[in-house]
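Appendix B, Record 12. Input sequence as logged:
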Amino acid sequence: MSNTQTHTGAAGKANTRTENGGGEKPISAEAADNLDAVKRDMEHLVDRASEEAEKLSSAARKYGAAFAQQRKAGTADTISDIAQNLRELSDKMSDRPNLLSIMENAADSLEDVADGIRTRSFSDLYNDAEAFARERPLTVAAGAAVVGLLAARFLKSSSTRASEVRRDRDWDDYDPAYPYNGRPGR
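Logged structural output:
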């Protein structure tokens, strides 16, 4: 079973088409020209779609890189702020030299981290983090556990404060005429 078409359009050669039966039937020059025009239009559309897809991909990469750079700068600024706060706090602890030394070392280390984030590319930072995780998986697991515990503690304290505020607000609405819920219709 074959299905071949041979045509040249206006070039003057014989245009034939082989169908399932194996017989050849001539196709008109106009049909061959139309087929060529459709093929050229489709090729043009495919080329145009490829160009547009490349433009869109390029714009997405630029946006992603700009966003990553912005987040990277924000992270470095936050770390620098924490280091500055540690330095200010250590100034107030001049009577405790051991604690002062630890806080100054921590502030210096944080500044080094912030400078490293500012000066290195996002892919370098990612590769370093990945290498660190491979070299020290227990340290990464312990760090993740500490972050999880701190997050749980924060969430627990936030929910406790929120329930205290609700409880205080409910007592503000207390009406002895409605002892069970403080308000009619609740």
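The CA atoms of residues 178 and 184 lie 7 Å apart.
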